[in-house]
Amino acid sequence: MTREVPDSCPGVLRLHQAADGPLARIRVPGGRVEPVQWQALAEAATELGDGNIELTSRGNLQLRQVRDAGELTRRLEAAGLLPSHSHERVRNIVASPLAGRVGGLLDVHPLVPLLDNGLQGVARLAELPGRVLFTLDDGRGDISGLGGDIGVHAVGADEFALVLAGGDSGIRISAADAVDIMLAAAHGFLDLSAGAWRLREVANGVAGVIDHLGLSPSAEPLAFAAAQAPPIGWLAQDDGLVSLGAGVRLGSLPARLAEFLAAIERSLFVTPWRSLVIPDLAEGVAEQVVRVLAPMGLIFDANSPWLLVSACAGQPGCAKSLTDVRADVAAAVESGRVTEREHWSGCARHCGRPRGQVTDVTATTDGYRVDRL
Question: What beta strand segments (E) does 302-371 contain?
């Protein structure tokens, strides 16, 4: 298989020319963002963009209407958000956001920098398509259901299932070998890809990668399902501290709110459900965070209708959209009309649609069409 069009996934160094202006996508491996980075992002969004930071379905970040690409690059490099020019678009790593704090079989967060450094350390791996996704699941099943290309899923305190093309390969590996095997699988994908963007697009791709690794399945494969809801609200950690799960309306975080996140002085995690996890808080601090940030728009109520909806960019960000989808979905939520999980799309492409059971609300020339599964 060969690509009919070039890989156009945006980054920081190669912006996407959206209808409302240049868009930059910032890779955040494992979703982890430090306080100084939130401050840098807030300032960049205000001074160089449209004033908002978008959260993506891969736990990455986006800035819209970028006015000075060179200055943005300089600022993100200084904040540690652009450690590589050659590999920036291949650093797509998602990890269970609550790993090591609330439940799970194995803390996968220490694997994130090892995998990230391993990707950046091999020149050839810069050839990976920007759509390839690495997944690290601590065994709770929240990440393996995202349909990644290469990943691991904890099945014990020191053992992983090797996940290929979103499915359990049946191969079991030790935690110590996990990163090396994932990197080897990435090489195997490149050997086989012939221009394909995703492992599932390669004929016999999983079998070919397994053959490349020289490993044999030894267990009955597990079945993975997409997580239906993000972790929201008060989450008691195993060590007695508190994590707060916070929803973000339509995944768009105002820069002013990002400044307040920086002031918490904690490493925060962006989730692939366009939400946040604020970890390692004493109870009193957690209560104060909720009191301050809930009125500013963060959602700590798991029953909020805002958590039921997602939407594409819509107008004016997308030239193909037939309407201002986000304004329409906001009106629907605020009027109380949303009672089930819905994804609103400005055209039939359904960009940004989450995995799993969801009702499609699609704009047409005659209004919205509702398709319930």
Answer: 309-311, 342-345, 359-364, 367-371
